[in-house]
Amino acid sequence: EPEVTQTPSHQVTQMGQEVILRCVPISNHLYFYWYRQILGQKVEFLVSFYNNEISEKSEIFDDQFSVERPDGSNFTLKIRSTKLEDSAMYFCASKAGHGGYTFGSGTRLTVV
Amino acid sequence: DQQVKQNSPSLSVQEGRISILNCDYTNSMFDYFLWYKKYPAEGPTFLISISSIKDKNEDGRFTVFLNKSAKHLSLHIVPSQPGDSAVYFCAASAGGGNKLTFGTGTQLKVEL
Fold this sequence. Notes:
The structure holds 2 protein chains of 2 kinds.
Chain A: E1 5-7, E2 10-13, E3 19-24, E4 31-37, E5 43-50, E6 53-57, E7 65-68, E8 75-79, E9 88-95, E10 102-103, E11 107-111
Chain B: E1 4-5, E2 10-14, E3 19-25, E4 32-38, E5 45-51, E6 56-59, E7 62-67, E8 72-77, E9 86-93, E10 101-102, E11 106-111
Parallel strand pairs in B: 2-11
Antiparallel strand pairs in B: 1-3, 3-8, 4-5, 4-9, 6-7, 7-8, 9-10, 9-11
């Protein structure tokens, strides 16, 4: 069964450093998303991406965040200057059209 | 912003019995509802969904019921199995391709 692949599974970074979280969505999917889950809290929407541009973003997704789909297969989330409160599980998801979303297994980001 | 609510943080059920997980929503624009199962340090795994044009959808041991007038949906698992023990998230979207809004989750424990 097709799956969404995320790398790395765990990333530790120092406060103020830049991180790039990588995702390979399912190949024929059209919609791409990033969500995050802070420990003990609910899964929160960050950003959606369709037709090579951001279609929606949440308040969390400020100027420190950016997304790219550089080569038609990878979908990346960059955090320019990480803060302690960015520590969370980050999930990539993709979707064909109508129907279910498929989530990756997540990247645990720890900012120290 | 509690557009999707799961008021029971935990539920304990005996093996073989029915598990009923509940979810309420406030946004009348939501037209697609999903249930996800999540284990610690893993991504949400899609279980079952329902469109707002239906009031019931079944898939094996899982049935989702939607009551649009009450803005309420429920997930029934019967019979419950120990492997069903996980956190269950209700999620909703408004329009195809749009972001998911998640509830806070219900921890289901199925006991022998």
